[in-house]
Design goal:
One of its GO terms (biological process) is tRNA threonylcarbamoyladenosine modification. It comes from Diaphorobacter nitroreducens. InterPro entries: ATPase_NBD, Gcp-like_dom, T6A_TsaB. The protein is of the alpha/beta class.
């Protein structure tokens, strides 16, 4: 298949293009910069792969949870590119959960098969969900994802915590569990895409939506001050 995948849900921008059996990848700064750099980087990577938008079979994007701005950027770009592909006939869009992509990246990079995937949700919270690799070569995906304080994350024995939340919260996050750094890379999205497309997860461009877990994107001044006062004093 010829696939374009990208994720802008974290502070890292990740893009990958699959042309037959080969994959081209690009990574860069995400966050606020992604809205300006995503489309030029996609064009460059497609050119390296010798592909045009009219040759794509689907557009894959990390739908969240994650940065609100990043999710909206990725969804809007995925919709626009999918609408215009194949001379305006359009191609399907495949929205993929970012926590699932974290679990897949942990499996590919570290061999983890029982993963509590986490992403920093800011505001002293993490997004989290457990994923277990099955004998049929697919992930068992939970029905619901969690949004919770890092101290509240429960990790079963024998499971690994993967994601980027450990860097933000340190020992506050599951101090007894093994940890692996993993991000929802575009390469992980590509590995997940064939099974998801075969299962009918691809949608028309206008039906592609981000996945939000939180409906509040910022703390008030009073909330920030309360959190500052409640934080433990730095060690001297």
């Amino acid at each position: 298949m010829n696939l374009l995948a990208f994720d802008t849900s974290t502070d890292a921008l990740s893009i990958a293009v699959q042309h037959g059996a080969r994959v081209w990848q690009h990574s860069g700064a995400g966050g606020a910069q992604a809205s300006a750099t995503l489309i030029p980087a996609i064009r460059d990577l497609l050119a390296q792969a010798g592909l045009s938008f009219d040759q794509l079979d689907a557009v894959v994007f990390g739908r969240g949870p994650g940065s609100f701005t990043g999710l909206r950027t990725a969804c809007a770009v995925a919709q626009g590119l999918a609408f215009g592909a194949r001379g305006g006939q359009g191609v399907p869009v495949l929205p993929v959960d970012t926590l699932l992509a974290v679990a897949e990246e942990a499996r590919a990079q570290h061999g983890c098969t029982r993963v509590v995937a986490t992403l920093d949700a800011r505001m002293n919270e993490v997004y989290a969900a457990p994923f277990e690799w099955q004998a049929d070569g697919r992930w068992q995906v939970p029905q619901d994802f969690q949004l919770l304080a890092p101290e509240a994350l429960a990790v079963p024995d024998g499971w690994t915590v993967a994601g980027n939340a450990r860097a933000a919260y340190g020992e506050r996050l599951a101090p007894q569990a093994p940890h692996m750094h993993a991000l929802p890379t575009a390469a992980a999205l590509l590995r997940l895409a064939p099974a998801l497309l075969a299962a009918g997860a691809g949608v028309a461009a206008d039906a592609a939506l981000p996945r939000y877990i939180r409906d509040k994107v910022a703390q008030t001044t009073a909330e920030r001050e309360a959190a500052r006062q409640a934080a433990p004093a730095p060690q001297t």
